[in-house]
Structure formats: C-alpha cells, structure tokens
Request: fold
Amino acid sequence: MGITRNLKNLTFNSAYKSVKRPKLDLKVLDKLERHFGIKVPDEYVQLLKFSNGCSFNESSYVPEKLPTGYGMITACWFYGVYEDQKDSNGLWWAIEGYRAALGVDRIPISSDPGGDMICLNVSISPAFVEMWMHEIDEYIFVAKSFEEYVDGLFEPEDDEDDDDGEIDFEYSFFDGEDDEEEEDGKEAKCRCFFAEDGFTEDDDDE
Reply:
C-alpha cells in the first residue's frame, strides 16, 4: 500500500552536520536481497528513496503494549543501503551482524538508545514492526505495518533543563569491535549506528 504520511513533513535531526548521503541504488538493493534471500518491504524502500539512511526529530513511537519501564520506542537511525557492505550505517551490515540473533525473517531497520533492535518481520505480508529486547532475547509487537509505524512517529518533548531546542541522546559509535573498557565506572553507552555527520534534505527524490 505504501507510506501515506508525507515524509517531507518529518524533520531531519539537525544535531548532525549536513553531508551527502548516496541516493538509493536499486542495483545495490537487488544485490542485498539476493545475497540474504529476502525482499525488503516496499514501504521501507519508499523511505530509502526519500532519504537513504536518516534520523528524524519525530523518532518516537508508543505501541499499545510495552514492558514495564518503557515509555516509548525511539529510533536512532534508519539504516540505508550502500555499496560498502561494512558501512555500519547500512542495512547490509546490520542484517549480517544481527542475523544469528534475529533469524532470517526479521530485517533490522534501526536501534533504540538502549541497544534494542527495531525490526521488520517479513514472515507475513504486510511486514509488521517489532522490537528485539537484546538483554532478555524477547520480541515485543510494535505496529502491524511499517506504514502504521511511520504514521505514529512523533517528536518527544525536550527535557525542562534543555534550552537548546535539540533532542539530546547519549550515543556511542561502534567501529565493529567490542569495547571492553568502561569510563568512570559506568556501563558503556548503547550502540546506536548512524553517520556521525548526518544527511541533507537535498538527497531526497523529487
């Protein structure tokens, strides 16, 4: 059916510097699908055509049911499709890295600030959205379709102490190797995979 929400009404997270992200190459997408034996749902391809990898201020979603301690689900960065298979902002890297944990019927499309993976479950059509809670290795239902998920995305309120107008998250960038060290006795921050610099609206398809 496709995403009905006007994606141009979503606002790119301006916490990142503007850089060029490559437009979606359908040949690269086809290569990814053939390699993993999957079909990326059309709704997600629609997002990739709009911006091939992105993070929005409207990043949060509230499912009907959430485990105790969860108020909402927040997507850090929606993975793009890139020729560089080792690009940690990319779908190829995410699928390859998480397939052993998620199985063949789930496509990881983003992670939340706690390191849990937001996935498209393609075992049925249309694919539905769920989240893998990595600490307990369980899944929670998020939305019955990617269209419904995008339609429900909203911008969370800023903290009262935050006066810069930006949404603040604490991220750590993952270079593909585990960091066994901890800073100041605190646990290492979750791994949210996105480009350090971000993207520009100029990359959108007309």
Q: What stands out?
A: The CA atoms of residues 67 and 153 lie 19 Å apart.
